Amino acid sequence: MRIISFYLLLIAQISIVSCSVTRKLPPEDYLLANNDIVIHENPEDRLSRSEKIKKSELSPYVKQKPNSRLLGLKVNAYIYNLSNPEKNNRINRWIRKIGDPPVVYDSTLAVKSADDMAVYLRSRGYLNSGVDFFTDTVGKKINVEYSVRTGTPYRIGDVRMIFQDRFLEPIILEDSMNTLIHTGDLFDVNTLQAERERITYYLKDLGYHDFTINNISYIADSVPEDMVINLRMLVRQHISGYDEEDRPILENNAVFRIRDVYIQPDYNASSSVRDRDYFRRLDTLEYRGVNFIYNNSLNVKPDVLLRAINLYPNYLYNQTDIRRAYDNLFNLGYFRNINIILSKVEEDTASVNVVTFIGDESGDFTKEKLLDYHITATPRPRQSYSIDMEGTTTSNYYGLSLTVGYQHRNIFRGIELFDISTTGGYEFMRSNTKKNSYEIGGAVGFTMPRFVTPFMVGRYNKQNNVKTRFDLSINLQNRPYYKRTLSSGSVGYSWTNNKNSSFIIRPIDVTLIKMHSVDNNFRDSIKNEFLRNSYTSQLLVGISGSYIYNNQVSGVNKNTFRVRANAESNGNLFNLIAHTFNNKKNDDNIYKLFGIQYAQYVRADVDASYRFVLGNSTNLVYRFYIGSIIPYGNSKLDNLPVDRRFYAGGPNSMRGWQARTLGPGGSLYDPQDDPYPMQYGNFKLETNLEFRFPIYNFFHGAFFTDIGNVWYTEGDNKDPLAVFKFDTFYKQLGVAGGFGLRLDFNFFIFRLDWGLRLHDPNKPKQYRWIQHLTLRQSSFNFGIGYPF
Asked: What are phi and psi of 360, to 5 degrees?
């Protein structure tokens, strides 16, 4: 009876909202309820999947879209109708702003939609297609159906190329294997346009600066009985001017070569306009054939800029090289604005070379002309500061950390990035013992825009955004039961491949974990041997690397995919030294160096996320994470470094738990009973789903679900429930759901997430699924930026 009452109430609410949307419409108007596209194909046509017309291709041409729905209701239109149209005060403007006006059906837009669909179909080769539309009214609502008749498409028949510029004939034909046009393909106008662009780009990389897509045209000859279209591609000459009778003067397309390159790395646009003497004060320095323009002094070393642009006099014009120069200059991180301006050298001031084909009986030739490159770059402020804050709280646990950083972007005139930061954190446990802890540390980094190696590296390396980075850091942790210092140093190299991939290699990666003191009662109270043995000094020396793929384009709102893979190996060098010099193991059967055990293991993890764009600021983001660390040689599972293990919980992980309070596996554990939780594992599996949406102005919201846990992968642990097993791991997954509030100020995002533990694998089986909603079963997390 309750179910029937619920559905009756839901139907009544839907009816009320629907009527509220249409009640203010004039008698002659109808609310657009739905658009439907019905495609009628010729059953005799054998089309591949890619050749068939899909609804998703035609829907963008529909000019009118119905109001958006939430749970089947036009909530935004209903909110809009709550405003008084006769009043324009603040509250009514606000209501109309957060809502959407009801979409009133417009027949002229329906006609335009059908016409645009027909144009698109013809561009895809469906020349005999047609589009009609029909309407169906129900009360004050109207449904529109677009009926699409595709007909049999035309295909490409014979393809020939005609060269007015015969000098380009062997050049273009040499690249014909990469053509996009093939006999038998659909006659697709988009493909024909793409082939024009491909040839143009190809020629521009060979020096043909003035060649454009307008130098290529098509002549189409249809054969209706065969349903084919024969193509003639015409490669035109360049119009250099007009004679006295206004007829075009044609000549072969010229090859352009660089004459002079000018670089001004401290260009100030506002001063160049306001200050009449700005250009008079500029000086010029010629270095390796390139002219450097500066005011007072050259703030950037010429070598650094030459490595970035790789443009020199006498080089052929190359469009790809120019784009690479722009990207390399921008990726240095020093310049705010960059402009590369090309100017032609007048023929009366330069000798014009003539290029011919050796041994060509026709005597075809073309001219070789000259270009000057002018590069102006405006630097960013050399110094900057940053502040990052992160907090975590539950019913009896509070934590806050603060990081203050300073950066200098050109400390030695080589566009080196020097950064230094100081971090402080304080954690307070509200319990009977009131155990508090703190940590303080600092880090120094130095980045150079080139490879710094003991051996020679090619000066003209084609990789982009090349950097060498040196890092040093130290961190003192004073916990309730122990005190230790973490020190690290590394040398890393990074670069990109000019597409979507980035690479990082750290051939030197050293970490020293020095335990100053450990509370013996605390250590003896730890039942888990894995954790008990972790409170010892450790030395880590190894190699690590990362691969990052990200196809997100700044300013483009589209579906994006991002993946980061990390791998590291530690201890092999020290192990080789120990065996070479016949070092003996101690009583625990391990080697030590300087009295400190060195760790030996391999570690890898993959973090992948996919963002589905649902609207201007509405996204659905899915994330998957998997990681594992495997000890061998001088290390065992119970003495792996704590900082290399995996944990769950916190602002960027399982947000229903505090950091390090979930897991391992299904072991029985209540973080509320532990004054300082330290739950770790050597294997982690996690997946997240987050729906992000705007609320008002810079206020954004999110609903999220987190599923995951950490485990051990060996059975020598005393608790078998903590060990990962394929037949039981899915029962040990923690599940959290919650709501987040984001303050999006563009330059940074402040985030507050409230997570509720829906399934807690560390409780007895009968209590794992949530029984009652209490504050003890949730966690508040503060953070800067998105969690993934």
From this structure: -85, 120
Q: Looking at the predicted structure, is the pLDDT value of residue 18 above 50?
A: no
DSSP 340: E
- What element of type H or E holds 13? helix 2-22
DSSP annotation of 317 reads P
Query: Nearest CA to 399 among 756, 787, 740, 659?
Result: 659
Residue 546 contacts residue 564 (beta carbons within 8 Å):
yes
> What's the sign of the alpha-carbon dihedral 654, 656, 658, 662?
negative
Q: Can you count the helices (H) and strands (E) in the chain? A: 13, 32
Strand order in the sheet with 130-138: 31-40, 141-149, 130-138
Compute the half-sphere exposure of residue 134: CA atoms within 13 Å on the CB side of its CA. Answer: 6
pLDDT tens column, 120-177: 999 999 999 999 999 998 888 889 999 999 989 999 999 999 999 999 999 999 999 9
Q: Token match 């790395």: residue?
A: 265
Q: Which two tokens stand for residue 594?
A: 């300087």
HSE-up of residue 733 (Cα within 13 Å, Cβ side): 16
Beta partners for residue 291, in sequence order: 262, 286
Find the mean pLDDT for residues 529-558.
Answer: 77
Nearest one of 484, 479, 448, 443 to 466, comparing CA atoms? 448
Long-range contacts from 279-288, C-beta under 8 angstroms, 24+ separation: 288/312
The two three-digit tokens of residue 112, written as one number: 């335009």
Quick check: helix, strand or coil at residue 694?
strand
Residue 754: exposure state from Cβ atoms within 10 A (0-12, 13-18, ≥19): middle
User: Which CA distances in Å does 534 have to 41, 185, 398, 487, 542?
Assistant: 68, 65, 25, 17, 19
CA 189 – CA 196 distance, rounded (Å):
11
717: alpha, beta or left, given left = phi > 0 and alpha = psi -120 to 50?
beta
Three-state secondary structure call for residue 393: strand
Q: For residue 92, which phi and psi values (nearest 5 degrees)?
A: -70, -35
* DSSP β-ladder status, 335-344 and 365-379: antiparallel
Query: Per-residue confidence at 596, pLDDT binned at 50, 70, 90?
Result: confident
| Tens-digit pLDDT profile for residues 480-506 | 778 889 899 999 999 887 678 999 999
Phi, psi of 324 (to 5 degrees): -65, -40
| pLDDT, tens digit (0-9, with 9 covering 90-100), for 433-444 | 656 788 899 999
- In order, the DSSP letters of 500-535 are SEEEEEEEEEEEEEEEEEE-HHHHHH---HHHHTTS
Give the pLDDT of residue 610. Answer: 94
Q: Specify the amino acid at residue 171.
A: I
Distance CA 53, CA 188 (A): 12
Contact 188, 203 (CB under 8 A): no
Provide the Cα torsion 642, 646, 650, 654; round to 10°: -160
Instruction: Quote the CA–CA distance of 82 and 92 in Å, as a whole number.
Output: 8
Amino acid of residue 299: N
Cα 27 to Cα 707: distance, rounded to the nearest angstrom: 52
Map 115-171 to HEC letters. HHHHHHHHHCCCCCCEEEEEEEEECCEEEEEEEEECCCCCEEEEEEEEECCHHHHHH
All residues at 6 or more sequence positions from 11 whose CB lies less than 8 Å from its CB, including other chains: none
Q: Are 148 and 58 in contact (CB under 8 A)?
A: yes
CB neighbours of residue 192 within 10 Å: 19
Percent of the chain with pLDDT over 70: 85
For the entire predicted model, the pTM comes to 0.71
